[in-house]
Amino acid sequence: MKMASSFWKGIVGVGLFALAHAAFSAAQHRSYMRLTEKENEMLPIDIVLQTLLSFVMTCYGIVHIAGEFREMDASSELKNRTFDTLRNHPSFYLFNHRGRVLFRTPEQEASSARNQQALPNPLRLRKLENFQ
Amino acid sequence: MDPFLSFTEMRDKLRKWREDNCRNSEQIVDVGEELISDHGSKLGDDVWIIYEQVMIAALDCSRDDLAMTCLQELRKQFPDSHRVKRLSGMRLEALERYDEATKYYEAILQDDPTNTAARKRKISILKAQGKPAEAIRELNEYLEQFVGDQEAWHELSELYINEHDYGKAAFCLEELMMTNPHNHLYCEQYAEVKYTQGGLDNLELSRKYFAQALRLNNRNMRALFGLYMLAGRGTKENKCSVKAVEEMLESMQITMS
């Protein structure tokens, strides 16, 4: 049912109001019975009908507001889950992977190359030291 | 990626990726950057969690400029938040300034000793620096205090598998299976670890758990393959022939479709 959720919210509101109204009428009827000392009479049928109908309407409206139903079987929800996503632990993410280099833009490449040339090549110097 | 996604579609995609723990950082950066720059005002309060998501994805893609922008926005909005401090620490980790990052996390922990996120980041720093034994020790201590943390148990099992300590990895997976009995993936990973360990008892156990994984989800291909590999092995008394496995699979209605 792709009706606007405000429609269903309206239904729930009307249902709750009708329920409250029926409860108020029943209380009033009870006090009237007490005053006229006819305490054994049943509630008038229209109040009973109003209570039941407003209850059903509220329930129906809430079901439409509450969102998608899920399967009862817990394992069927996981049928499409794969290790691709299960293995990711966001609190433990590491950033020392090759993505740091792979996705570098050309400007970043140029600036890092410049930095490299400023430093002497440490390996070559160490090799020369060994020979001297 | 369709360049003309609508605002709601982009926001829903990001939410789905956030809930499923997908690490498709390039896509997150593309979609998230556009969402923040073009539709920032329409997002309302969602914008902060999207900033966090995009920042972490930007660190993955080496987009330090975008990460800094997101971090600054978050700092402006939440100046004294531990969560934002943790994100600053993560940025330092991405730049390989591990000592500064460790200082950040220790400051958070002094302020709030129960903060789990900072402790987990310290363990990740140990992992990044190539100190698996210390990472394992710290993670064990963490799990003694916070026994219910499933992410941490799974992380510990992965660390043990990398160290080839399959017995302890199996223990971690048992903990996970106890708390998630309906999850076929944990059953299947446990069966794989037992299979790797080898030895008759472990192979027997492995076959049982592959079957359990298949019972929970009859489309789990790896469990099917594991069961197939184990068919025909076992002791002389209860040799499970290929025929018996086929009959069992038929009874579970796993056909060739």
TrEMBL record, chain A:
Protein origin, superkingdom: Eukaryota
GO cellular component, one term: early endosome membrane
InterPro entries: MMgT
Molecular function in Gene Ontology: inorganic cation transmembrane transporter activity
Subcellular location, record wording: Endoplasmic reticulum membrane; Golgi apparatus membrane; Early endosome membrane
Function: Part of the endoplasmic reticulum membrane protein complex (EMC) that enables the energy-independent insertion into endoplasmic reticulum membranes of newly synthesized membrane proteins. May be involved in Mg(2+) transport.
Protein name, per record: Membrane magnesium transporter
Automatic annotation (TrEMBL), chain B:
Principal place of residence: endoplasmic reticulum
Keyword Membrane: yes
Highest taxon of the lineage: Eukaryota
Transmembrane segments: none
Entry's Gene Ontology cellular component terms: EMC complex
Keywords from the UniProt entry: Endoplasmic reticulum, Membrane, Repeat, TPR repeat
Residues in TPR repeats: 150-183
Domain annotation EMC2 TPR-like: ranges: 85-194
Protease listed as a keyword: no
SUPFAM superfamilies noted in UniProt: TPR-like
Topology in the lipid bilayer: Peripheral membrane protein
Location of the protein in the cell: Endoplasmic reticulum membrane
Record function comment: Part of the endoplasmic reticulum membrane protein complex (EMC) that enables the energy-independent insertion into endoplasmic reticulum membranes of newly synthesized membrane proteins.
Subunit details: Component of the ER membrane protein complex (EMC).
Family as reported in the entry's similarity comment: Belongs to the EMC2 family.
Official protein name in the record: ER membrane protein complex subunit 2
Annotated organism of origin: Gadus morhua
Lineage: Eukaryota, Metazoa, Chordata, Craniata, Vertebrata
